[in-house]
Each structure stands twice: as C-alpha cells, then as structure tokens.
Design brief:
InterPro entries: Glutamyl_endopeptidase, Peptidase_S1_PA, Peptidase_S1_PA_chymotrypsin. This protein is mainly β and 355 residues long. The chain has four helices and 22 strands. Strands 6-14-20-19-15-16-7 form a seven-stranded mixed β-sheet, covered by helices on one side. It has a six-stranded antiparallel β-sheet with strand order 1-21-22-18-17-2, with no helix packed on it.
Length: 355
C-alpha cells in the first residue's frame, strides 16, 4: 500500500488538529548509533549556518511574559520527499560525533548501564518522573514575535563545553523563509516543565539553524541549536544535567524513547488532556524514512508541541542517554513520526554553537 502524500510539520500550538505525512521503508536491525538583551545583527556564522545573537543582557527577552502569552498555531511548511540525503549534499566536514551526557552538579545518582526501552508504545504516555533526568534535561521552548501570541515546542539540554547548549527542531525557532529575517523576536526555555512548574525561565543567548532550512524550508535540515544565558554565574547544564549526542549513525533500526510536550495526538487530532502542560513519551524501534530522505521514522502519536523533542538512545537507569534524532514531521494517516538524519550537518551546527 502506498503511503499518503500529504505532509505538514508538527508544530507548537494549543488548537487545531495538525498532521504530517510521509513514507517509510523498514530496515533490518543494526548496531548502536555510536560511531568510532538587545538582539545583535543577524548574520551567517559560516558556510551553511544562519544565526541570531541576543547578547549577554536579558532586557529585551525579559519582556516576554509567559503567564500572559496566548497560543496560536504557527504556519505549517509542507514536507518534501526525494533528493539526496543531507550528508550527500554536505560533503565537507566531519560526519560523526558521539558524546556522553552528564548529571547535574552534586547529583547523588551514579552513571549506570543502559537499559532497554521496554515494550514498544506508540500511544504517547505521560512521563511520570520529574526532578530527575530525562525530564530534568527536557523542557518547553517558547517563541513569539510580539510578546502577546506565541507557540510552544520542545527542546533538550545536550552536553557541551560551554554547558549552555540545547537542541530542537529548526521549525521551532525559524519560519523556514527569509534567511536571517525568519527568526522570532522572543524566546524562552523552561526545563523540566510540568503543569506550571519548572526549573526557571532561561533566555536565549545565541541561536543557529542550517541555511537550507532558513532559506528553503528543507526538511533534511530541520534541526537547530541554541545557547541560553546563565542564571548569575550558573550555566543551565549545572542545574539540569545534559543528554549526550550520537550524530552520524550508520543504520536505521535502533531502540528509542522519544519525548515532547504535545497539544494533540496524531493522526486522530484528539486534544491532549492538559495540553502543553505535561511531558509525554513513546518508545519503540526506528526504521528508515523517506520524509525526509535518509531520515528515521518511529511509531508515535505525539503531535503539535512535541516538535523538537529528543529521540534518546541507550538511556541509562539514571535517565541519561544520547540524542540521535529530533521530532520533526508526522504522517497524516498513520502513527509514523519522523526525524531528519543527524550527520555531518548536525556536527557542523553543534560545533559552531560552541564558539
């Protein structure tokens, strides 16, 4: 049976049954994905990267009052299939990166052996444990142009030298058109968000997306990295801990847990109880996806608001694993959710964010 052709991005928002589509081809099981504030001028930071810098102050960002923000769906770019994989288009630069995550400072939890994802669950469930990883490293990402209306996505603190780096979907932070003009004016991140409780509000410092997304809405590059400002002298990774990363995996079938803050379930369009207030997850084995080309698919009912959430591989019993995918698109008629391939382009973006 041929897969449906209609495709839309998973977006943040409180209303509407928005869905995505795409095709998938199943792969055989492989090995581990491990591989041997005023806003400043917006400008490219290097080949293929577009950035926005907020400076060290929070004055502009602090005007975003999250308690008064009204939600609305963001514009939904259409998905596309075909063409080369992202790594085939980006032949320069290192193709892989594999880093361990970390616990918060002074955490009593020890690094323990990886556990399995357990029984596969394509029906999204509420994650029951907060205050510890993985929930502590994941949170709600808010973006707004006018400070009155905005949308929500999901983002993850990932291990980094600057201890301030996060990972999300490109469409969560950039409209996919207009180059440097496609960014939003206001952003804020709330780690370990759970029903109006979180580990504080963290405002962005730098924000970077790949140019093919910023200029052409290319779904193969639907990922983004950003840094957040410190709270006093304390970096966010010291508070939340961080997930590791595994970019440049060689196969397509891996056990994952995926996380996000959905507002609706897809493809049904049914509204999530307590939409955007609770962290949900799915678990299962990934497979090859054509939406986008070279990407990963997994069966999961999370919809709008879950965009940008992590696909965690090898999560230990202390909640620390490695990000090897990101919630990007979803099929309109099935439970298939997709991630772009995180290879050399993702490595380049990650390294640029460390400067």
């Amino acid at each position: 049976m041929r897969p449906p052709k209609t495709r839309l991005l998973i977006a943040g928002g409180a209303v509407g049954a928005l869905a995505l589509g795409g095709g998938a081809a199943y792969a055989t099981a492989g090995s581990s994905p491990h591989v041997a504030g005023k806003v400043s001028a917006q400008k490219p930071t290097g080949p293929g990267i577009v950035s926005k810098d907020f400076g060290s102050g929070v004055s502009a960002q602090a005007r975003l009052d999250l308690s008064k923000l009204k939600l609305r769906p963001m514009p939904m770019p259409a998905g596309q299939a075909g063409g080369m994989t992202a790594d085939a288009a980006d032949s320069a630069g290192p193709r892989s990166l594999s880093l361990d995550g970390s616990l918060p400072e002074e955490s009593p939890d020890a690094l323990k052996a990886p556990n399995t994802v357990g029984a596969a669950s394509s029906a999204a469930k509420v994650w029951p444990r907060h205050g510890k990883a993985p929930a502590r490293t994941i949170g709600r990402l808010v973006a707004s142009d006018d400070g009155l209306y905005g949308y929500y996505c999901t983002a993850t603190v990932i291990t980094s030298h600057n201890k301030s780096t996060l990972w999300t979907a490109g469409h969560c932070v950039h409209k996919g058109r207009g180059g440097t003009g496609g960014f939003y004016r206001y952003y804020a991140f709330e780690p370990d968000y759970d029903n109006h409780r979180s580990l504080g509000t963290w405002y962005l410092n730098t924000l970077r997306v790949m140019a093919p997304w910023a200029n052409n809405r290319d779904l193969r590059y639907d990922f983004a990295a950003f840094t957040v400002q410190k709270h006093g002298k304390t970096a966010i990774q010291s508070v939340t801990g961080a997930q590791g990363v595994s970019f440049g995996y060689k196969h397509r079938a891996y056990p994952f847990r995926t996380f996000g803050y959905p507002a609706v379930f897809l493809p049904s369009g049914r509204k999530v109880p307590g939409a955007l207030e609770r962290l949900y997850y799915c678990s299962g084995t990934s497979f090859a996806s054509r939406y986008p080309t070279g990407g990963l698919g997994i069966m999961c009912s999370m919809g709008n608001g879950a965009s940008g959430g992590p696909w965690l591989y090898g999560m230990k019993s202390n909640g620390i694993g490695r990000v090897a995918g990101v919630n990007s698109t979803h099929m309109t008629r099935t439970l298939q959710m997709n991630s772009p391939y995180l290879g050399s382009a993702a490595v380049t973006l990650y390294r640029a964010t460390q400067g």
